[in-house]
Specification:
The protein has 580 residues and is mainly α. The protein contains 25 helices and five strands. Helices cover 60% and strands 3% of the residues. Pfam families: Voltage_CLC.
Length: 580
């Protein structure tokens, strides 16, 4: 219930504060741009985003909506609002809750593998991360709220588990609650409860028994139901990007889908290497001593470059939603500026492929600039001392590339329908290619290349569309991106940040050969008793209690057995006492 409620509040607040950078609703200042025009009786189908109740800052302050002076004033206030939001966010994190920065998923993975990070899931972290998450997403930085929502949900799970002795005194039970909370976090982030459960199983949890699967499913269900009750998107739907396609895909399109998978794998490799190199430089140079200055500088650069381009000025979620959409008869977007046949009598949902108009060509070069901008700025943004998610920026990169490829394939099919690759399935006057589907496949490929997710990724994207027939393109792109990315390195972005931060994370997928003896790293002093050790499987809780009472060592080596004494790890005395 709590993660679903917080996610709904965050979504509503982000929509309002994002639009606040450009203007305000006169009829009700707490309405976002979309909500303001929904309530207007003067909104037209030709331009559904304009209504007299919504005014830009230039109209409100100087009474002008057009011209150079109005543009400069709106530009300046856009930058000022972005800087204000970012400065407030980084200041709150630095002063009140340093653990509220970052995505949170690397640390959640580490905690679920058995390590304890004290205070990381505390009440202050929950409060500050919730507030600052709204601020950083609203500032326009190339960040998402989906990853941090997993951290927020786990903070909720940790807080409520501490109220019951059954969970507060048992770390194993507590971690089961955290696994379920992680599933609830992804469920409310995307509106994908099944994908949330699989994400917790595939990406986050170290130990995931059957009873945890059921609890995670129930938590994701309740969280999704709570979010749906709040209805933050205003469309009576649960998913973040609802799309509906009316054209099936064809086997000949599998080749561009695989190419998008290759692009996603290469993008994932490039991003991980460049971002880790930049984060390492931040940790080892004076740059890391000035986190507030870094956030202000990156925010200023982002706002200055983003405003002139309509595809980078809007929120990243709105951009992805537009790229996913299919072009209907009532669409006024530049991406849907095709040259229509005046004699066309097709139904609204069955519009044939058409030649691109001037708006499409303008949108293509604007999208190309947006793609380069998103690739570069995300590398420098992720990892700053503010809440930062990576799901949405990665999906945006893939969606932009996919939409451009989709438009290219669509125009090839229209102008060269007699080519052998189009002849069998794309006849003249037919609706053959859906560019929005390519955007969706590209988004899945890039997200998979960065995180190395496969099964949960496909299920999340499937839940976004509700179409079973598009699972094969998604699977092909996801698997291809993982293969390509794995060819350059097995680590995803979260594992890379775990190693960068030096967390003691033992990946359950890795196999270890224990060759070192305990006596190779520690020996008892002369005249003292033999080395006191913990064994992997043969010790009971009573044996551990006896060992603690009879010795005063600060820690004990963990070995395979008394016979081999091959070293596995080291357990601190303090942690053993707390666990018992």
């Amino acid at each position: 219930l709590f993660p679903g409620t917080l996610a709904g509040v965050i979504d509503l607040a982000v929509d309002w504060m994002t639009d606040l950078k450009e203007g305000v609703c006169l009829s009700a200042f707490w309405y976002s741009h979309e909500q303001c025009c929904w309530t207007s009786n003067e909104t037209t189908f030709d331009d559904r985003d304009k209504c007299p109740q919504w005014q830009k800052w230039s109209e409100l302050l100087v009474g002008q909506s057009e011209g150079a002076s109005a543009y400069i004033l709106n530009y300046f206030l856009y930058i000022m609002w972005a800087l204000c939001f970012a400065f407030l966010a980084v200041s709150l994190v630095r002063v009140f809750a340093p653990y509220a920065c970052g995505s949170g998923i690397p640390e959640i993975k580490t905690i679920l593998s058995g390590f304890i990070i004290r205070g990381y899931l505390g009440k202050w972290t929950l409060l500050i991360k919730t507030v600052t998450l709204v601020l950083v997403v609203s500032s326009g930085l190339s960040l998402g709220k989906e990853g941090p929502l997993v951290h927020v949900a786990c903070c909720c799970g940790n807080f409520f588990s501490s109220l019951f002795s059954k969970y507060s005194k048992n770390e194993g039970k507590r971690r089961e609650v955290l696994s379920a909370a992680a599933a609830a976090g992804v469920s409310v982030a995307f509106g994908a409860p099944i994908g949330g459960v699989l994400f917790s199983l595939e990406e986050v949890s170290y130990y995931f028994p059957l009873k945890t699967l059921w609890r995670s499913f129930f938590a994701a269900l309740v969280a999704a139901f709570t979010l749906r009750s709040i209805n933050p998107f205003g469309n009576s739907r649960l998913v973040l990007f609802y799309v509906e396609y009316h054209t099936p895909w064809y086997m000949a399109e599998l080749f561009p889908f695989i190419l998008l998978g290759v692009f996603g794998g290469l993008w994932g490799t490039l991003f991980i290497r460049c971002n880790i190199a930049w984060c390492r430089r931040r940790k080892t140079t004076r740059l890391g001593k000035y986190p507030v200055l870094e956030v202000i500088a990156v925010t200023a650069i982002t706002a200055i470059i983003a405003y002139p381009n309509p595809y980078t000025r809007r929120s990243t979620s709105e951009l992805i939603s537009e790229l996913f959409n299919d072009c209907g008869a009532l669409e006024s977007s530049q991406l849907c500026d095709y040259i229509n046949d005046p004699n066309m009598t097709r139904p609204v949902d069955d519009i044939p492929d058409r030649p691109a108009g001037p708006g499409v060509y303008t949108a293509m070069w604007q999208l190309a600039l947006a793609l380069v901008f998103k690739i570069v700025i995300t590398i420098f943004t992720f990892g700053m001392k503010i809440p930062s998610g990576l799901f949405i920026p990665s999906m945006a990169v893939g969606a932009i590339a996919g939409r451009m490829v989709g438009i290219g394939v669509e125009q090839l099919a229209y102008h060269h329908h007699d080519w052998i690759i189009f002849r069998k399935w794309c006849r003249p006057g037919a609706d053959c290619v859906t560019p929005g589907l390519y955007a969706m496949v590209g988004a899945a490929a890039c997200l998979g290349g960065v995180t190395r997710m496969t099964v949960s990724l496909v299920v999340i994207m499937f839940e976004l569309t509700g179409g079973l027939e598009y699972i094969v393109p998604l699977m092909a792109a996801a698997v291809t991106s993982k293969w390509v990315a794995d060819a350059f390195g097995k680590e995803g972005i979260y594992e890379a940040h775990i190693h960068l931060n030096g967390y003691p994370f033992l990946d359950v997928k890795d196999e270890f050969t224990h060759r070192t003896l305990a006596t190779d790293v520690m020996r008892p002093r002369r005249g003292e008793a033999p080395l006191s050790v913990l064994t992997q499987d043969s010790m009971t809780v009573e044996d551990v209690e006896t060992l603690i009472k009879e010795t005063d060592y600060n820690g004990f080596p963990v070995v395979v057995s008394k016979d081999s004494e091959r070293l596995i790890g080291f357990a601190q005395r303090r942690e053993l006492i707390l666990a018992i």
